Amino acid sequence: MVLKIKPGLKTVIGRVISNRMQKSVVVEYTWQTRHPLYKRIYKKRTKLYAHDEHNQCTIGDIVKLEPTRPLSKMKRWNVLEIVRKELDIDLSAIDIQANNGGPPTPQRA
Predict the structure, then answer these.
(1) Any residues with CB less than 8 A from the CB of 79 and at least 6 apart, and which?
(2) pLDDT for residue 105
(3) pLDDT for 30-43, tens place per residue?
(4) Cα dist. 25→20, 62, 97, 100 in Å?
(5) Rounded Cα–Cα distance for residues 12 and 29 (Å)
(6) Cα atoms found within 13 Å of the Cα of residue 80, Cβ hemisphere only
(7) How much is the pLDDT for 86?
(8) How many CB atoms lie within 10 A of CB 12?
(9) Which of the 8 DSSP states describes residue 99?
(10) Is 16 exposed, middle or buried (0-12, 13-18, 19+ CB in 10 A)?
(11) What keywords is this UniProt entry annotated with (predicted)?
């Protein structure tokens, strides 16, 4: 797959925090900036609403976004690619019980 990025458009990389909507995802974009007076570096973050045409994104994925024309009231970004998929771990297959395999709990008389 060859990605054609339009010159002059800023692409951002963020983490998917919600995919409950159809063909839409919410991406958290974080960056660092310096305070103008105190010169301390601190983190800022914002939520971006992006269009996911094929519903491929899951929560925790790292995605690359490009700006686009307004698609709805809040969607202004388009998912270019999924940089890294989040690992899917099925916890229902693992039998987790209290003190399973651990030391026995003392019984009170």
Answers:
(1) 25, 50, 51, 52, 53, 56, 57, 63, 64, 65
(2) 66
(3) 999 999 999 999 99
(4) 7, 12, 35, 38
(5) 7
(6) 17
(7) 81
(8) 18
(9) T
(10) buried
(11) Ribonucleoprotein, Ribosomal protein, RNA-binding, rRNA-binding
Q: Which residue has the higher pLDDT, 18 or 9?
A: 18
Beta-carbon neighbour count of residue 29 at 10 Å? 16
One-letter amino acid for residue 8 of the chain: G
Using one digit for the tens of pLDDT, what is the confidence trace for 47-90? 999 999 999 999 999 999 999 999 999 999 999 999 998 876 65
In angstroms, the Cα distances linking 33 to 7, 8, 38, 84 are 25, 22, 12, 25
Closest CA to 59 of 19, 7, 105: 19
Q: Which residue has the higher pLDDT, 75 or 106?
A: 75
Round to whole Å and give the CA distance between 108 and 106.
7
The helix (H) or strand (E) run that includes residue 79 is strand 75-84
Residue-range domains of the chain with CATH: 12-84 (2.40.50.140)
